[in-house]
Amino acid sequence: VLAYHRGISAPYARSSSFFPAETPEGRIVMKGDPHFYSRSDLFERLGRHVAEEGLTALAVLPLRHHGETIASLNIASHSIAEISGYARQALTSIAFLLGDSIVRLRTEEELSESEQKFRALFTNDIFATAIVSLDEMRYLDVNEAFVRLYGYTRDEILGGMTVRDITAEPEATEASIKRMATGPTEFIPIRYHRRKDGTHFP
């Protein structure tokens, strides 16, 4: 699917916006090798719509990552008859770098989205939520709902408190955390906790 274009007509953009993998154009890209076309072979190899656009030279540069084609960079000219050898080398190098860059940007965007979703879940004002180190069972972060529920200040909790300080069932709680550190998610149907004032609650 054509994601961005500049300097070509709207009809040509529509006619070249999508090429299924099984078409000749799609197979050229999926093969992964750069292709350079001059004025003399544009019409013969790529069809009438290319000639009607008035293109005189075209570079089709597959963008690859770990041996897989993920996109294509197409650069065309309305004036030069052929792309020089030096320009071909430069364009091929650019395409090589772009493949890894696109994947890295996608990964960064996905990580950013995941972080935003986690932050929205963590900072909710309804459910008490905490991040705990599995080795020391120490609190690394808590939300405001957690602070209100247990009655400690945030500084007190993050100043060195552990899960043992707020559980009314320390042995069972510690055993559950140790199992979580080495196995799948632990399902705990009910466990009693202790607030700062000493009261217990499920």
Keywords:
202 residues, 3-stranded antiparallel β-sheet, 8 helices, 16% strand
Q: Average pLDDT, to the nearest integer?
A: 85
Low-confidence stretches are none
Q: What is the tally of beta strands?
A: 7
Q: SSE order, as H and E?
A: HHEHHEEHEEHHHEE
Strand content: 15-25%
The Rg value, from CA coordinates, equals 30 Å
Describe the largest sheet.
3 strands, antiparallel
Query: What would you call the shape?
Result: rod-shaped
Strand order of the largest sheet: 1-2-3
Rounded to the nearest angstrom, the distance between the terminal CA atoms is 54 Å
Assembly status: single chain
Structural class: alpha+beta
Helix count, DSSP H or I runs of 4 or more residues: 8
Approximately how much helix is present in the residues?
Answer: 40-55%
Describe the structure.
It is built from 8 helices and 7 strands. The chain is of the alpha+beta class. Strand 6 and strand 7 form a beta hairpin. It is rod-shaped, with a radius of gyration of 30 Å. The protein starts with 9 loop residues before the first helix and ends with a strand.
